[in-house]
Amino acid sequence: MESIELPECRKCGKGAMLPLSDYGREGASIEYKAWVCSNPECGFNIRIDNGEISYGRTVSQSLK
Q1: What is the pLDDT of residue 36?
Q2: 51: left (phi > 0), else alpha (psi -120 to 50), else beta?
Q3: Which of 3, 7, 19, 24 could crosslink 32 through cysteines, CB 3.0-4.6 Å?
């Protein structure tokens, strides 16, 4: 198994930024749609929605 070095969170400096993937409207895979800090106390995140980059929104579990 190949080891991957994840970037450090620039907000808290304690966690690593974890990449998350999703599926588009027509079922196509979207790799690295979001990055979330692994430190639960931090919660920093960056995501792409409809071509726009947003960050800092509260992370929650999807009900889908």
Answers
A1: 94
A2: left
A3: 19
Q: Which residues pair with 54 in a beta bridge?
A: 47
The full DSSP string for the chain is ----PPPBPTTTSSSBEEEEEEE-TTS-EEEEEEEEES-TTT--EEEEETTEEEE-PPP-----
Which residue numbers in the chain have pLDDT < 50?
none
Torsion angle of C-alpha atoms 47, 20, 10, 52, degrees rounded to 10: -10
- Rounded Cα distance between 1 and 39, Å, is 24
Q: What is the pLDDT, as a whole number, of residue 64? A: 62
**Tokens linked to 21:** 């993937």
